[in-house]
Design goal:
By secondary structure, this protein is of the alpha+beta class. It has three helices and seven strands; from the N terminus they run E-H-H-E-E-E-E-E-E-H. A seven-stranded antiparallel beta sheet has the order 1-7-6-5-4-3-2, covered by helices on one side.
Length: 149
């Protein structure tokens, strides 16, 4: 099961970063390159424990849908979302926020399992893990710009 971990320091208060990261409207701003939009569940505002959202986006030239559910929230330290329906076999995404003297350290820990057994493992090695890493990093950089702007 691949694990992608990315850390970024954001020059903004921890509560602000935490709330921006859970905001559906902000999420769509941070992933404009995939034309991602919320089409089901909570489609606007801040996600909380028990909420789910269905995202529609274009990945690898194909329009896809994925439903994620927020399973844990401990404000402002972390929240967790998991895939309940979508292209992956499964995923578990932990979003951590650590208060620092010069801002907030945001840590993404994204663990996923590809579908299709051995073919999925091969896809991870060939392209999927790098694609997901770029996706997580790009989203974090965009979130940083919004939080600091």
């Amino acid at each position: 099961m691949p694990t992608i971990e990315y850390q970024i320091l954001i020059n903004a208060p921890i509560e602000h970063c935490f709330d921006l990261a859970r905001n559906v409207d902000i999420h769509t701003q941070t992933v404009q390159h995939t034309k991602e939009k919320a089409v089901g569940g909570v489609t606007s505002g801040i996600l909380d424990e028990g909420d789910s959202v269905t995202w529609e986006a274009v990945h690898f030239g194909v329009k896809q849908r994925l439903t994620a559910k927020v399973t844990e929230v401990k404000r402002p330290d972390y929240f967790v979302d998991i895939m309940i329906k979508g292209a992956f076999h499964s995923f578990h995404h932990t979003h951590q926020f650590i208060e620092k003297h010069d801002g907030t350290l945001m840590v993404d820990i994204f663990q996923y399992k590809s579908p299709l057994g051995p073919i999925g493992i091969l896809a991870d090695k060939l392209f999927l893990e790098k694609y997901m890493q770029r996706f997580i990093i790009s989203r974090a950089i965009e979130l940083k710009k919004i939080a600091e702007g």
